[in-house]
Amino acid sequence: MGFLLTNVCWENLYLSRNPLVERKGIISVKKITYLILILLLAFSLTGCFEKKADDNLIGVAMPTQSLQRWNQDGANMKAKLEESGYRVDLQYANNDVNTQIQQLENMITKKCKVLVIAAIDGSALTEVLRKAAENDIQVIAYDRLIMNSEHVDYYATFDNFQVGVIQGQYIEEQLGLEDNAGPFNIELFAGSPDDNNALFFNGGAMSILQPYIDAGKLVVPSGQTEFTTIAIHGWKSADAQARMDNLITAHYAAGRKLSAVLSPNDSLAIGIITSLRNAGYGTADKPYPVITGQDCDKPNVIAMINGEQSMSIFKDTRTLAEKVVEMVEAIMKGEDAPVNDTETYHNGAKYVPSFLCDPVYADVNNYQELLIDSGYYKESDLQ
Ligand code: BGC
Description:
Elements: H1 2-17, H2 23-55, E1 57-62, H3 68-83, E2 87-92, H4 97-109, E3 114-117, H5 126-134, E4 138-142, E5 154-158, H6 160-175, E6 184-188, H7 196-214, E7 218-219, H8 227-230, H9 237-252, E8 260-262, H10 266-278, E9 290-291, H11 298-305, E10 311-314, H12 317-332, E11 354-357, E12 360-363, H13 367-373
Parallel strand pairs: 1-2, 1-3, 3-4, 4-5, 5-11, 6-7, 6-8, 8-9
Antiparallel strand pairs: 10-12
The structure holds beta-D-glucopyranose.
């Protein structure tokens, strides 16, 4: 640019001092020079902006729009990152692993600086994360741990084991197990086997419930307690409903009382409730069992208000989004991101430095304060 300016000045000087040069000729040479100058300036400015924008681009890959929570997670994170001056490429993959991999590849091509990923299948991203690392892109696993890759830089989540513990404790308290009440019949459900969280939820809940099963205070009439038997692939409501239908037909048809169902999240709880309602539960003679959940999805909070679901875990997605924005900011400054756990989440390749937020439970007694007064939902959302 400096070279060009010098050239133009020299040329102007030369032209203005040379009486032999025709006036018309002077203007056209000048005009062309200025035009070139303006064009070059415009190109270089656009280039600068593009570069700046590229330097600021954060990729956010979410699993699906079909569950309320991921829509909120995505929207909250996009809003908070944009408030902090970043551009965001937010993608949902319709729960399809290959779509998610393609989206991540696009983000790498677009030169995102950080990838925030809630994996569909935690074990399917090893190759694409290798490409991210080759391009100096840092990776934050969002909510779900990404397995079998050393290229997961951070993990931000709610304390997944604690989620299960709170669900187990809720059942324990509602049935009065600590006061030696029982025996009670219970059925157990677990989440998707390709989601590492599902194992933690189950581990946490069983850390509370297993001693009561061992002591005969909780009885599982179906005998189905193994994770692989009780897991619902893809967290599908319809599959949870079908399994509950089978359990009712096979083990509760003769009027045996069902006192509790351990459901790891809200999408399963919806299926379980539908099955129980169809089988005539929800009357004075046949009340709903204690049913747990997680996410405080709107239909589930309504089900809590209606006395169908007993509790749900509240994971305030605003808190998690804020934490991830802090992590992104630290990474962009070349600093270490804030973590509070370095020894719980081993992904098969390494312990991933993690930040664990605190989950709490919501039920009919505290949802007003927790969900409405806090501005998470409007009263009208729950009608
Ligand atoms: C999340 C839960 C969610 C489930 C199904 C888990 O990884 O932690 O909050 O209910 O996936 O989407």
